[in-house]
Design brief:
Aspartate Aminotransferase, domain 2, 37% helix, seven-stranded mixed β-sheet, globular, Aspartate Aminotransferase, domain 1, alpha/beta, three-stranded antiparallel β-sheet, 2 domains
Length: 375
Amino acid sequence: MAQRATADLILPSDLLPRDGRFGCGPSKVRPQALAALAATGSSYLGTSHRQPPVRDMVARLRRGLTTLLQAPQGYEVLLGNGGASLFWDAATLSLIERRSQHLVFGEFSQKFWAAAQAAPHLEPPERIETEPGRHPLPRPTTAVDVFALTQNETSTGVVMPIRRPDADGLVVVDATSAAGAVPIDLAEVDVYYFSLQKGFAANGGLYVAICSPRAIERIETIHRGGRWIPGSLSLQLALENARLEQTVNTPALATLFLAVHQLEWMLDEGGLDFAARRSAANAAIVYGWAEAAAYATPFVSDPAMRSPVVATVDLDPSVPARTVSQVLRRNGIVDTDAYRKLGRNQLRLGLFPAVQPDDCRLLVAAIDHVVARIT
């Protein structure tokens, strides 16, 4: 009887968010962006990526990101197919000369380390690690030429400050779930790279890398040195094509359009300050609820390390998080599941700028309603 009641549980209409998407990637795509894409008709999708409609979109993305993130003079925006996963491989070939140092504090921060560890032309990378739920700090050293940092660990909901270590190595930052929603000073960074399916409310398929003059010099130096690099992984080719407002090969046109629409919406609303405030407001709602609820606790114990874009909330063992997520999904509130490899009785909620604070308020009220009826 209890199982049947859970399966049939219907939320009251006044507890349903207007938009029930709370995923951590792909994240909510604003309906206005989808409508704008549909309105292009036959003038954009299905057209050549070497012609003005697509090259203009690339130019808008590069120009808008430079403005949104207040890139210092001389920084350039590269982009290419494959997302951040491909970029890790490209970085092992085009950015790391000899050895890198990696801060590891979750599933995604360890992936770049794994790519560097497997690269036969590189020395074994340094690995500085903490348990999930907190972050380590870089160790200044002359023994490495790349410091690989992660601004926001998507699997655990930990955010870390980005500061340049007192050393000469390039600072290469994975910003996939932070870019466009967490403040950043690009003067502290040499490569700020990310995919577009989180803060920029698009789909997967493209990476963006904002590169300092030092990073561009490293890319060009390695290229001149004759290291063999497949064309699809060459940041030198990506750089040359970006300067022509295009990609090496055909980009994901829908992803490109949706990202530009989200980016220009952010700029129109006030830029990165607006976007960061919006995510911070969402986070305040969720963490405030988690601290007040008798059955919930923020997974990240240190408030300074709690992500404003990915909230992870542990539930009491008496409250099965999987059941809560299943009931929410049947009611149109989706992608609240914990990260599978973390293995905790937990909810993980995407709080990117496209998510409305009013919907966050309804989300936590809906969770309370579900828990009261399944326990």
